UniProtKB/TrEMBL annotation:
GO terms for molecular function: acyltransferase activity. Pfam families: Acetyltransf_1 (PF00583). This is GNAT family N-acetyltransferase. The lineage of its organism: Bacteria, Bacillati, Bacillota, Bacilli, Bacillales. CDD domains: NAT_SF (cd04301). Residues 3-172 form the N-acetyltransferase domain. Its EC number is 2.3.1.-. It comes from the Bacteria. InterPro entries: Acyl_CoA_acyltransferase, GNAT_dom, N-term/lysine_N-AcTrnsfr.
């Protein structure tokens, strides 16, 4: 089944919000309070914030389609748009989400490969991401693709401080 990738524009902000909320809920709703989820979703995925992210030249969003339907998306950052201070030669995969009905089809690897391609086009030497310490499926997936844990940082889900592992992959 062929996957189709399309770079997002500001015109996609409503669709981006819809899929962001849907996939974040699918991934984390069972592990967090309704109040913390609501608080996080309102801050992270409000239309004004997403529009500003789409307009940032140091960030790029991509939708992946299966049979004409958006199945997931990828967000990458460079430079000052990265959520952690990293070396100039790095690219962050800030978000990679696949709708649950499209998981286990190879879309995650497809999006990671695209992020690696974007990084290589920009002469980056490393890609990195943060992943929740209790997201065992994601941790196993990233390790299988050659990412290694090199640190950790706090991530706030509402008022709940959680830990994300920083995972990196050298490209040289």
């Amino acid at each position: 089944m062929p996957f189709v990738l399309r770079k997002c524009t500001v015109d996609d902000v409503q669709l981006l919000q819809d899929i962001s909320v849907e996939t974040f809920n699918e991934t984390f709703e069972a592990h967090n309070s309704a109040e913390n989820m609501k608080d996080y979703l309102e801050k992270a995925y409000n239309l004004a914030k997403l529009e500003a992210e789409l307009e940032n030249d140091l960030s790029q969003f991509f939708f992946v389609y299966v049979n004409g339907e958006v199945a997931g998306y990828l967000k990458v950052n460079t430079g000052e748009a990265q959520t952690e201070k990293m070396e100039a030669e790095s690219l962050e995969i800030e978000r990679i989400y696949i709708r649950s009905r499209y998981q286990k089809m190879g879309l995650g690897k497809f999006l990671i490969d695209h992020a690696i391609g974007v990084a290589m086009e920009q002469n980056k030497k490393m890609i990195w991401l943060g992943v929740w310490e209790h997201n065992e499926n994601a941790l196993a997936f990233y390790k299988k693709l050659g990412f290694v844990q090199t640190g950790a940082h706090s991530f706030y889900m509402g008022d709940d401080e959680q830990t994300d592992y920083i995972m990196t992959k050298r490209l040289d």
